[in-house]
Specification:
By secondary structure, the protein is α+β, with helices and mostly antiparallel strands. The chain has helices spanning 51-56, 115-120, 122-125, 129-151, 190-195, 237-258, 260-266, 282-293, 305-320, 371-380, 389-396, 409-417, and strands at 17-29, 34-40, 43-49, 65-74, 85-96, 155-156, 162-163, 175-178, 181-185, 202-210, 223-232, 279-281, 324-328, 341-342, 345-349, 351-356, 359-366, 402-408. The longest helix is centred in the first third of the chain and has 23 residues, at 129-151. Bound molecules: 4-amino-1,4-dioxobutan-2-aminium adenosine-5'-monophosphate and magnesium ion.
Length: 437
Amino acid sequence: MQHRILIRDLPAKLGETVIVAGWLHRLRDLSKFGFAILRDRTGLVQVVLSTEQLESLKGFQVETVLKVTGEVVKKQSKDPNANEVEIQAMSVEILSPVKDVVPVEINKEEVDVQLDTLLDNRVVTLRHPKQRAIFRVQAALVHGFRSFMESQGFTEIFFPVLAGAASEGGAEFFRVDYYGREATLTQSAQLYKQITMGVYEGVYGVSYSFRAEKFATSRHLTEFNQLEFEVGFVDDMEDVMAYGESATRAMLAEVAMSCVPELELLGVTLPPLGDRFPRVKLKEALEIYKAGTGIDETQEPDLSPAAEKWLSTQWAPKEHGTGFVFVTHYPESKRPFYVALDPEDPTSTLSFDLIGFGSEIVSGGMRINRYDEQIARIKAKGLKPEEFEDYLMMHKYGIPPEGGWGMGLQRLTQNVLGLANIKEATIFPRDVQRLRP
Ligand code: 4AD
Ligand code: MG
């Protein structure tokens, strides 16, 4: 819209006549005159309406789309230091009339409904400033990721979503009918990003991952995004983790820089990063958990959700001034066929998770880059090498020693913003029950 001014930029236009446009967020009828609160993608502004202008809005509901021409004036306030502005309307034009009452009130401080109601009415509830803010922060995280990867000279890859075989093994994959043949939806871009190691040496991408999870939990979706990364010619797993730490720092720095109003609106203080994310082996992590809480899970092959939470929200902040901790060397039985075994202990793997502010946000590790070793590993996992012919072709024709990781975008957003359920950090979530909107 030509000459339209965004609400955020109005203070600089004090005394000028401007055009603003947006949604009728609220209307206050004071009989002789009235106030319309107008909302655009940058905020809210109060518009002072005459009796006639007020009259012209009679019968229209909130969310009616308006174009207002008016003068930017200082808002009357008891606080002499307040420098908020408002608009004295000269004309009000209806761009899109709304006659129906919205199903959920979105003009209060909070959208005060159950999660299911929030999501059933997503089309409308997403318009609430706090809901909008969540996905602005998410976008900034992705922007920070891309900027970091570009600064390293890596190549962005667009991975396929339809594939012939399961990408991570296991049973959690969706089957789709593909012209009468069976195809699957990729559980991650894993196999494809590895294949590109034979070409680009360093790649990244934002992928779609599908998991046929059996239960809906507060941390699992059936469709989510991963920030994928893979790098070749590394000396060891530390190189791969270092990229994970740097990327995470760059992403949070981007949020801190570009999302000040959003963080303020959401009441979020970004968690501490510290000087260095600690790295601990799984066995040590379980010992630390036992020593700190008295809970003995030292015989477990994995971290429980409670242990992940304690390590990243209690132990790491106290001992290392950060909300992040790398846990390494998960047992062979807990990791997929493509993860390298630890040469010092073949029951263990060169793998890691990055636990951040409550739960796992990243999984990664070193891969197997030798052909024979990979075939043996596929067989040991009870899988058939014939089904991985394309994948194995890269080993056959040479890929460098390499590793990588995948970061769950919605999981990260959830943890950074301290949201109780991952679905709050997902714009249009899908889970066992939900496939709409
Ligand atoms: O741990 P995952 O399954 O690892 C992989 O997919 C590997 N290919 C990564 C690699 O490069 N080695 O998934 C990676 C991340 C998890 O750490 C978590 O943040 C997120 O993706 N994630 C999920 N997010 C939402 N719903 C689910 N069902 C998720 N499963 C994993
Ligand atoms: Mg994982």
